Automatic annotation (TrEMBL):
It comes from the Bacteria. SUPFAM superfamilies: Pentapeptide repeat-like. This is Pentapeptide repeat-containing protein.
Length: 195
C-alpha cells in the first residue's frame, strides 16, 4: 500500500505475510490491526494521524523507522521497540500519542516531546531522560539483574528521551517481588509511574 491518503479505514497486517505500508502513505483516523512480527513489516514512509495501531501478538526488537505517529493510540505488547528516530525527525517521529493501553518493556522513545504522550499504567514505568539518571544509577547498589537492566537503560544518548519498562517482566527476570522493584525504581530521578 503506497502513494495514497486513506481515512477511517481498517488495515490488517497478517501473520506469515510481508506487509509494506509506504512510501507516501497517509492514514487519517485509521485502524491498523497487526498480527505480523518485525520480520513481516516495513513502513518506508507512513504518516499516521489519529487512529489506532493494535499489535495483536508481541512485537519484539522493532524500530518504527519511516513512521510518523501523531495522536495515535497504540495497543498491544511491545518489547525492545524504538519509536521515533535517533538522528532525523523527518524520517520517523512520535507525537501526542497514547500508549496507556499498551504493554511495553525495553522500549525507547526517541527525539520526541513527552508532553502529550500518555504512558502505560503500573506495572509499566517510564524513565524520562535516562542519560541524566546515569550517574545516580551507577553509584547505587542494585540487585544484580535490576542493576544490569538499569545500566543498559541509562547508557543512552540524549536523543533517547524515555525508556519504558515492565516491572512484571523485571520481577520474573530478577526473582524479586514487584513491590520491592517499585520501591527501588522510585528512587531514580526522572522515573514516572502511573497508577
Amino acid at each position: 500500500m503506497n502513494s495514497q491518503v486513506l481515512s477511517s479505514q481498517t488495515i490488517e497486517l497478517e501473520r506469515d505475510q510481508v506487509s509494506i505500508l509506504g512510501p507516501k502513505l497517509e492514514l487519517h483516523d485509521c485502524t491498523i490491526i497487526s498480527e505480523a512480527d518485525g520480520r513481516g513489516m516495513a513502513f518506508p514512509g507512513l504518516r499516521m494521524h489519529g487512529g489506532v495501531f493494535d499489535q495483536k501478538q508481541a512485537l519484539r526488537d522493532f524500530h518504527f523507522e519511516g513512521v510518523h505517529f501523531l495522536r495515535v493510540r497504540l495497543m498491544g505488547k511491545y518489547i525492545g521497540c524504538d519509536f521515533g528516530d535517533w538522528e532525523d525527525m523527518d524520517r520517523s517521529s512520535v507525537s501526542e500519542c497514547d500508549f496507556s493501553s499498551a504493554r511495553m518493556h525495553d522500549c525507547r522513545l526517541l527525539n520526541c516531546d513527552m508532553k502529550g504522550i500518555l504512558i502505560p499504567k503500573w506495572p509499566c514505568f517510564c524513565l524520562l531522560n535516562p542519560a541524566e539518571a546515569r550517574d545516580f544509577v551507577i553509584l547505587q547498589q542494585w540487585p544484580k539483574k535490576i542493576g544490569l537492566i538499569l545500566d543498559i537503560y541509562t547508557d543512552s544518548d540524549r536523543e533517547c528521551v524515555a525508556v519504558l519498562g515492565d516491572a512484571g517482566m523485571l520481577a520474573k527476570e530478577s526473582g524479586l517481588p514487584m513491590s520491592e522493584i517499585r520501591e527501588l525504581l522510585q528512587t531514580i530521578p526522572g522515573l514516572h509511574i502511573v497508577d
